[in-house]
Design goal:
- By secondary structure, the protein is an alpha+beta fold.
- It has one domain (2-208).
- It contains 5 helices and 12 strands.
- It has helices at 2-24, 29-37, 130-139, 144-150, 187-208; strands at 41-43, 55-59, 62-67, 72-77, 82-87, 96-99, 104-107, 112-117, 120-126, 154-157, 160-164, 170-174.
- The strands form 3 sheets. A 5-stranded antiparallel beta sheet has the order 1-5-4-3-2, with helices on one face.
- A hairpin with a 2-residue loop joins strand 2 (55-59) and strand 3 (62-67).
- The protein is globular and about 65 Å long.
- The termini are close together.
């Protein structure tokens, strides 16, 4: 009887986790309506979403923080002071940040890309030809060496972003609750899979009891 109670409890927790995971990847309706009207939606709202922080980069003392699952890009200064946000088209693909010697590029999931300079949008390009879209992305490779130069003093820990000083001390420039690290990468799927196995084992034991 006690095992059945634990199975029911874990099942309820799993359902709640799945609902929360689905919600973490849903773009707010207001933003979705706005980006469907045009190419980009700029707004003021310093919200650190309960979602995966999918990417970040630094250029010209601007910190770009991408919540790809929400279709939102937040822009801060190098010390974490909020500037503005941009909502972009979100579908089923991956949104990515790239940089070159001058600009930051956001590639969305609908074959569009946006060019930023000092935290401001300076160009929008829409591609219906996926091959041309990929050619532009590939022209920005290799991005890793470029990124290392710009984010050398920044790192992510527990879903927050830290900046390291010259004396090797560090402080949070983007502060998010530590438990949001469970939204990062494949962690939520591993977590759910683990508890599904536990629930299955408990269910088998309850039948034998």
């Amino acid at each position: 009887m006690k095992i059945k109670y634990y199975v029911s409890l874990i099942f309820i927790i799993l359902i709640l986790c799945v609902i929360l995971l689905i919600e973490s990847g849903v773009q707010p309706l207001r933003m979705r309506n706005e980006v469907e009207k045009g190419k980009l939606y700029c707004f003021i709202g310093n919200k650190l979403y309960w979602s995966q922080l999918t990417d970040y980069c630094v250029k010209d003392d601007c910190l770009y923080v991408l919540f790809g699952d929400k279709g939102v890009l937040n822009v801060y200064d190098g010390n974490g002071k909020y500037k503005k946000s941009f909502a972009f088209m979100k579908t089923k693909g991956e949104s990515e940040l790239f940089i070159d010697n001058k600009y930051v590029y956001l590639f969305d999931q609908s074959h569009n890309y946006y060019v930023f300079l000092a935290g401001e949008l300076v160009e929008f390009v829409s591609y219906t030809d996926y091959r041309s879209y990929l050619q532009k992305k590939n022209s920005l490779y290799p991005k890793d060496d470029q990124r290392k130069t710009d984010i050398a003093n920044y790192y992510m820990k527990y879903a927050s972003i830290y900046r390291q000083n010259t004396d090797h001390s560090s402080y949070q420039v983007i502060h998010r609750p530590w438990f949001l690290m469970f939204f990062q990468g494949i962690t939520p799927f591993v977590f759910i899979a683990f508890w599904m196995v536990v629930m299955l084992m408990l269910n088998i034991l309850s039948k034998k009891a």
